[in-house]
Structures are given as C-alpha cells and as structure tokens.
Amino acid sequence: MVVRLACAALMLCMLSACSPSAPPDGRWEGSYESGDTMIVARLETTHDGQVRISLPDITGVSNDPTERATTRDSLTERLAGGWGEVVPRPMDFDGTTFRKPGGIAPQIDYDKSTSTMTVYVYLGTSPAVLVPLHSVTEFSDNPWPH
Q: Which of 59, 72, 87, 131 is deepest in the core (most CB within 10 A)?
C-alpha cells in the first residue's frame, strides 16, 4: 500500500513537471542599434499566452550622427504612435521560449532569473537579430539607452 501511494505521488509530481509553464505577466521595452540597423521594441505579455509586440525597424541607416539621431526619434515616435493599434495574439510558451502557435522558430526568450526578454527579429534572409528588453512598469517615452 505504501509503495503504491509513493508511486502515485511520484507520477503526479512527474506530470506536474511536464505541464506547460504560464507565461509571465508584464511589460518590456528596449532597442537595438548596429552599423546600419535600428530597432525599437515594446512587448506586453499575459499569463494566458497573449502577446502584444511592436518592433519598428530601419535598415540601411547612415553613419552620419545627425541622421542617426533623427532616425532614433522617428522610430521612437512610430513605436509610441502605433502601440494603441497593436492587437494581442496567442503564442505558445514552454517556460523559456515563446513561439507562434505550432511554430518551431523562437520568437521571444524569457529569462526568469533576470526578468528580461530577448526578441528574435527576422529581417529578410539574414540571421535573426536579437533585441534585449528590460522589464518596465510603464512604457517610457524613449526606449533607447540613456
């Protein structure tokens, strides 16, 4: 009897360990800038797997400092101005990675220990650009590092 009870308890623990993790509730924002690419991002997730994300980007950015500053401002305005139009969509979450429903390619990685997200941005046939996002209570007026 004790052995059966122990086996049943062990099976229950194993099944609960295999159950999918609930996505975190929260907001994240961040930016990415390389030689010719700029991306700004806002992300909002709910425990039921709904994700709102906006990722305005520009490629072919000039190295001229004045033009880069103008481009940063433009992306920031596009991010804030379009956020109200972003529709939540479902994503599968396995405890660390968000994917489109039934999808294979990672879309977002979550690091619970640091409460950070990393968004995969696929631009054409180039390898994914990884955009780090930090947790925020409210979205800021400027997602670029200060």
A: 131
Q: How many H-runs (helices) and E-runs (strands) does the chain carry?
A: 2, 10
Query: What is the reported pTM?
Result: 0.83
Question: What are the extents of the domains in the chain?
Answer: 22-136
CA separation for the pair 102, 38 (Å, rounded)? 29
Among 118, 49, 53, which residue's Cα sits nearest to residue 82?
Answer: 53
Residue 51 CA to residue 41 CA, distance in Å, equals: 13
77-131 residue pLDDT tens: 999 999 999 999 999 999 999 999 999 999 999 999 999 999 999 998 889 999 9
How far is it, in rounded angstroms, from Cα 27 to Cα 25?
7
